[in-house]
Every structure is written in C-alpha cells, then in structure tokens.
Amino acid sequence: MQGGARESTADTGEKIVPKEYTPEDLVAIWEEFLGGQEMRHNVNAIADFYPDVRSLYVDFSAIERFDPDLANYTLIKPVISIQSAEEAMRKMISHALTNPFIHIRIRGLPSDSRIDIRKLRAKHLETFVSVEGLVRKATEVRPKVTVAEFECMRCGAKVFVEQEGMQFREPLECSKDEGGCGRGSGSTRFKLLMDKSQFVDTQKIEIQEPPEGLRGGAQPERLAGYIDDDVAGKVSPGDRVIMNGVLKSIQKGAQTKSALFDLTLNINSVEYEEHEYEEIVISPEDEMSIREFARSTDSFDKVVASISPTIYGYFQEKEALALQLFGGVTKLMDDGTRIRGDIHIAMIGDPGTAKSQILRYMATLAPRGIYTSGKASSAAGLTAAAVKDEFGEGRWTLEAGALVLADKGLACIDELDKMNDQDRSSIHESLEQGTISVAKAGITATLQSRCAVLGAANPKYGRFDENRNIAEQIDLPPALLSRFDAIFTLTDRPDAEYDRNVAVHILKGHRRGEIKLHESPETIPGMDVSQIMSDTEIFLPAMDIEFLRKYVAFSKRLIPVMADDAMKTLESYYVNIRKLGEGEESSVPITARQLEALIRLSEASARARLNPIVTAEDAERAIKIVEYYLNKVASEGGRRDIDIIATGTSKSQREQIYVLRSLVQQLADERRGVSLEELIQKAASENISEERVRALVKRLSDAGEVYSPQPGYYKLASEERMA
Ligand code: ADP
Ligand code: MG
C-alpha cells in the first residue's frame, strides 16, 4: 500500500507532511474522483433526491484506490479536504450550488486511524480518527445557528457572522467594507434576524469504550462528539458504533480560560456494529475444535468446572450460571410478541458467600458482560434517565444505564436490593421485554436492553433467618423477583464438614497464589512445590477461557428445537406439581413463569452441548435446577407455594392476614382503634405469633389497609372494604 507514509502517523507520532494541494487543485481532484466510474452513479442519485438526501457516503478504500495521496491528505487534513469535496459535489449538483447542506461522509477508515478513546493524544488533534464505543448519552436534536445575520440598529445595514463552536458570536463592528456605518459594538446594537440566519440540526453524544476492551476492571473512558444535520437523531444510547470524525479541542472553563483543553469529536460519519459476537472471531480451526469439544461426553461438566473455579461448592448454582451464558432462544411469536430467551438469575445470600466474586468472574467471562452495583452513582442508574445537566448545554440528555450498555450481553448487578426507586419501577420492562422506555420532558425513547441479568442481593436484615419466609427477607418487590428464572439463596450457617472444605479450599488457593508469584518456586525451602501445584489444579479453569468464550459465541448461533420427549417431560413435571395445588386448602405450587424458565434452561442446555435438538436429558437438567431452588425458596413447612415469590405472600400468610383484619375490625374502638398489644394477645389464640402479627400489621399499614389514629393503635382504613 502506498499509504506507507500514513501508517506511521498513529503510532510514532511523527507527522509525515502530506502532499500539498492548492485549494483549486483539491476541489479539482475531488471532482475527478466524484465524477469517476465508482462514484458517479451515487452522486447522480443524490442529485435526484436532493435536498431530501444530502449525504454522500464514501468508503475510504475507494479514495485510496483512486489516489493514495488524496486519501492520506484526507486523514491528516480532513477539514479542508472534506470541505473541498463538498465544494466539488455542489458544483456537480447544480441546484445545490448555494445550499450549504451537502455532505461527504467517509467511512471505513483504515485500522491505523482506529484509536482507543484512552489513547487519544494531542498529536491526533485536527486529524481524521475512528473511535469505537458504546453510546452512553445522546441529547435531543436542536438547531444550532451556523451563519447569523444581524441588523445594525443605527444604520440598518446587514452584518453576517459565521458561527463556529458552541459560543455565540456577535459582530464586533458594522463593517464599512460591507456598506455599514463603521460603528463598533460599543456604539450601536445588533439585532439577530432569526428568519435570515442559517440553522443546522445538531446533537451531542457521548461514547464510552466497549467493555471487552476493559478486562481487569478498568473504568471506561469517554469522549463527547457532535453530529450535524441529517445524521443527528439517528443514534440512541446503547448503540455500538464507530464514529469517524475530526478530533477537536475545546478550551476548558467558561469564565476564566484555562490552558487545558478537552477533546471532542466533530463526527463526520457513524457506522453501526450489528453482530453481537463479532468481537469474537471464530476461525475455521476454532470451529473444528469447538465441534470436537462438543462431542466429548463431559463437555458440559467442563464448562461448569470453568465457572469460578476458585469458589468452592455451589454446584447447582454454577450449572445454572453456565446455562445462563448460553441462554435460551428469543422468539418472535406470530402475533408479534417477543418472548425472551435470556435467563435471569438472582443470588440472594448472607455476606461473605462469594456473591460479588462470582459476579465479577461472570462479567469477565461472558461476551459483553458488565459488572455494576445497584447503587450506581450516575443519573441513569441501572436503566436510563433523561437529565438536564452541563453535558447537554441546555438540551435534555438521554443517558443509558447498565442494562442498556449490556445490550446483548450479561449484566451482573451486585447489590440489586440497593437500586433506586426509578430503577425499581422500570427494571421489569427490561427483564421481560428487553427494552427500557423513557418519557420525560421532550424525550420519549425506547432503548434496547436485551441482556441476561445476574443479580446479587443481601437479605433485608443482613443475614437470613431460617425461621421466616424468604420473600419477607428479600428487599426486592415480588413482582421483580418472580421474573428471575432461578433464585438461589446462599446461607452461611456453621457446618463442620462444609466449613472445613471451604477453609481448605480457600487456604490452598491462597498458597497456590503465593507460590505463583515466585520466579523460581523450587527454591522455597522445605516445600514440595510441584506436589502443591499439581494438588491444586482444580483452581485452573477446566477449559481455556478464551476457548470457552468462543464456544459460547459459536453455540449462541444455534437455535435448538424441542423434541417430543423433552416437551412431555416438562409438561408432566408442570402438571404434576400444579396438581398439588388443586385442593381448596392448598397453595399454588408453580406458575407458567416457571414453565417458561424451564424451557429456557432446557434450550440453553441443548446449546451448551451444541445439540440442535432439546432432548429429555436437557429437560431433566432444567427441572433439577428449578426443583433445587424452589425447594429452598418457595416452600413453607414442607409445602410448595410459589405465591411466596410471585406475590410475597404465602397461602398460610394470606389466611393470617384475613384473620388479623377481622380482629382489627372486631376489636377496634370507634375513636382510638385497637392497640398492638391487644391484637398480639388475641392473635395468639389463633396460633399467630407475636412476630408475625407485627410483620403483618406493618404490611397492612404499608398497603394502606389499616392506619394509626394514634401511635400503637390501629383501625381499618375503610369498613366497606371488608365486605
Ligand atoms: P459477598 O459478596 O457474598 O458478600 P464476597 O464475594 O465478597 O462475598 O466473598 C468474600 C470472600 O470470601 C471472597 O474473597 C471469596 O473468594 C471468599 N469465599 C466465600 N465463599 C467461598 C467459597 N465457597 N469458596 C471460596 N472462597 C469463598
Ligand atoms: Mg458483595
């Protein structure tokens, strides 16, 4: 490639002086290019539809084929080169001659112009760069004045001022050269003539580095940019884009000017990345080893053994996490509804049960995984927000939260119980539909958040109390909890055997870590290092992590279909459990939500084996996981009751609530109501414990069904409601 000169610009920092052109030459050579074989057709198409279509997209490689010098010049001096190109185009489209809105948008910049946001430096200023990232913020589209026309209030002359940047510029004088009176801005006033001035639509956006470039927990860096005219408004937060544009600096500080400058990008063109796994390249050799791996009988076990190998135990949990990586099949039904394939998992547990550790591991393992905390500090939180702050420069900004940024990936949300109220109310939509809607001020938008969620939370009072039902101890609304396909509770009770195993595992892990830091471990005195290392090979992931990521990416392309026996297995499991709930006295043991969870888990199991058919074996694996967690979470006194997670109230609790309400009604004094003490005393004869009475009274008053006429006394809020 003749662009040899260009190749050195990005890395060595030496600016190779490009071939020089006179302004006329530059326009002429662009005209030649645009009129040539390759482009002429496209230019004509624009001429036909102008001004509805006013951007000509040009692949960089086409310029390079035409003239490497011009291509090189465009990379180093993009502003003048593109201006000349637009000038040339205007000449070719006669009715656009005086119209400023015609654009040459160049895409497909060479890889040495592709710069990571964190590597942008002064040497890149004013050059054409290509930056990849996730759109985090986008403002409303608003007009910006490009050429302002003023009238001198003294003599009536017209004065034009070209506007650049974000500061509005007014005339300094009523220029005599242009027929004005020559007065300076001190001795006359200028009136802006809105209808004569030119405006262009603009939008400001912010992109951040894509998560997969950030292994090791680094914070993503960000870059703001401006989009003009017909491209404005096309980008939404959460999009993965490549922005091609001219890197500019803006001076920091509004009042006192600073010597420091901030970077922004004047965006020339936007390219979209559409394929979720394209960042993972799978070669034909990879494909062979993937297929070979899938054929071995223990392939799924190996995947499971690669999930957080430093964490002891949690076999069922790890199996579910492995299935979550692969995910079920997202379906579009004939009536247009979408049924998610993403598998959501919640882990609720005592402190120190390795939840955070597991989440962080999964975020690095999963393609497009991100790790975040529920109490995120940004305005967007987990979902999205419309904000009016400095960034928008007076416009509203739509900002994407974690679930949008994890679109088509895995969102690992630690401390889910700490999320803010806004997230609480909008997270359902994300979990179920894979979208987040924002309607505030001038902004109404629906952002994509088709991600699987792995959430972790602590019990409400810090630690599980095994005597209470679990939903009461989870600080998450039941409506949210029941959206999870699997809910694991991790309790940390002293248990001699388990404790010893965990201790041994942790100790061995740490010793292995110590030894691994030594350059020549053989020299550590009095230790059989090789024995220790081979003893602790379980700490190695059972498969190469890069290979696992490829395996996952490859399997996700597969769309497995349920075999008859798999359907039968799931059907009879569901029907049999539902039967338990048929009697008057019984609880509803399981709902259709668990059936869908079972289907997703079975599909994921087939994918994990790279099997196009979901078999009974896959269904059994899914059932095992659902049984395991339902036993822990949704049973009360040995009886299965899904209402505990579906509504937060078990059947027996519901009965107790009725009893308590009627007690309040019977005992309440017209004026004062009934005291809590009296309620507790009377409820005891109905076999309701004091603790339960307190909890239920609180729940009734939270729900507005009872109220306190005075502290410690309760009355029904509305007598009629009892009827
Ligand atoms: P949590 O987020 O549940 O409060 P952490 O992830 O912070 O807990 O875990 C605390 C520490 O204990 C971590 O360093 C983790 O590796 C260790 N740990 C806890 N349980 C296990 C286990 N079963 N096996 C190995 N290490 C464990
Ligand atoms: Mg934690």
Give a structural overview.
- This protein is 37% helix and 21% strand.
- It is an alpha/beta fold and 723 residues long.
- It folds into four domains: 23-112, mini-chromosome maintenance (MCM) complex, chain A, domain 1 (2-Layer Sandwich); 129-272, Beta Barrel (OB fold (Dihydrolipoamide Acetyltransferase, E2P)), CATH 2.40.50; 275-633, P-loop containing nucleotide triphosphate hydrolases (Rossmann fold), CATH 3.40.50; 651-722, Orthogonal Bundle (Arc Repressor Mutant, subunit A).
- Helix 8 (299-305) packs across helix 9 (315-326), helix 18 (564-579) packs parallel to helix 20 and helix 22 packs across helix 24.
- It is globular and about 100 Å long.
- The protein binds adenosine-5'-diphosphate and magnesium ion.
- The site of magnesium ion has 3 residues, from helix 10.
